[in-house]
Amino acid sequence: MTSHSTVESISEPPLIKPKKAKKVDDRSVQEFQELLRSSGLRSTAPRVAVLQYLHESSEPSSHAELFEALASKGFDRATIYRNLIDLAEVGIVSRTDLGDHVWRFELKKGVAGTAHTDEHPHFVCIHCGDVSCLPGLSFEVKGSKGVPKSVSKNKIAVQLKGLCDNCA
User: Fold this and answer.
1) CB neighbours of residue 65 within 10 Å
2) CA–CA separation, 168 vs 166, rounded Å?
3) Rg (CA), the chain
4) What letter does residue 71 receive in the DSSP assignment?
5) Which of 16, 63, 78, 116 is the most exposed place for a label (fewest CB within 10 A)?
6) Domain range enclosing 60
7) Is residue 62's pLDDT more than 80?
């Protein structure tokens, strides 16, 4: 079980914002298909589309953001959700709650140059709700007597909250 460290809570749900995109080519699609098959999942159009979107995104994405982005391809909410859960269960994507009770997903396994290969902290703007990955930061957590075992075993998620550059 992952515990979360938060400083402040978000009072309003974040707005859905367009993500910064990376280019996906045919080679990347083949890599997604191979990754799915090697993880024991069938390579289906919705799964590949979800992986493409997550690959193009520079930050964790919610189910609602994925649905909005992929609805034009004819995928319904339930299909997107089931695929996100399947991908999380086999470890291709990670699922994180950043304190606002919204699950966000991001690629976990390195595919086509994806940098999200380990656990990393996230920054959440307390004004606009924007979420940013902070893969270059590392934290050392030392447990002391009386803290949960997950802290001493470093099975925690670090989340920093404050004002982003646009809101500061």
Assistant:
1) 21
2) 6
3) 17
4) G
5) 78
6) 23-117
7) yes
Q: Are both 162 and 124 inside the same structural domain?
A: yes
Statement to judge: residues 135 and 107 lie in one domain: no
With respect to residue 133, please indicate whether it lies within any of the assigned structural domains.
yes
Cβ 133 vs Cβ 97: under 8 Å: no
d(CA 114, CA 53): 12
More confident residue, 79 or 15: 79
Q: Where are the alpha helices (DSSP H) in 22-138?
A: 26-38, 45-56, 63-70, 77-89
Q: Which two tokens stand for residue 94?
A: 């990670």
| Burial class for 165, CB neighbours closer than 10 Å (0-12, 13-18, 19+) | exposed
Handedness of CA 114, 76, 95, 14 (dihedral sign): positive
What strands, in cross-sheet order, belong to the sheet with 61-62? Answer: 61-62, 103-107, 93-97
